Amino acid sequence: MSFDLVVWHTSKPITEQQARAAIDQLLKEPPPTKGEPANVTALYNELTAKWPEIDNVPPEHEGDFDYSPWSFAIQRLGPGLLMHCVFAKGHTVANHVLDLTRKHGLIFYDLQDTYIDIPESLTKSAAPPEPPKPWYKKFF
Length: 140
Prior knowledge:
The protein has helices at 16-28, 38-50, 90-104, and strands at residues 2-8, 75-76, 80-86, 107-110, 115-117. It is α+β, with helices and mostly antiparallel strands. Helix 2 (38-50) runs antiparallel to helix 3 (90-104). It is globular and about 60 Å long.
């Protein structure tokens, strides 16, 4: 049993419902990989610097989930990543990945708890501030 997480890049404002639908679609039909956004690559590089990919674990660290908590290789899905870690390390990994998604402006999705975290800059409710009104329009 694994603990599964998704990170996803979008540059357009999005609602939680739209983000869930887009991530579900990403998991069902990953796009042809033509590269990935720079922030996804940066998160992947930071994550694998802390915890190497399962295929890169040296023999002396096999089964050492503090060294590498992954149950399977991280799937690189173009605009996103799908991660499977051992269940016992799930919350530790999820908290670290959540911090990285916030740092890199990505959407975080915990498939167990169906928790989603969308950067404020991407929420549709985060409308740009209204320009100041001339003083006299405040009264009329």
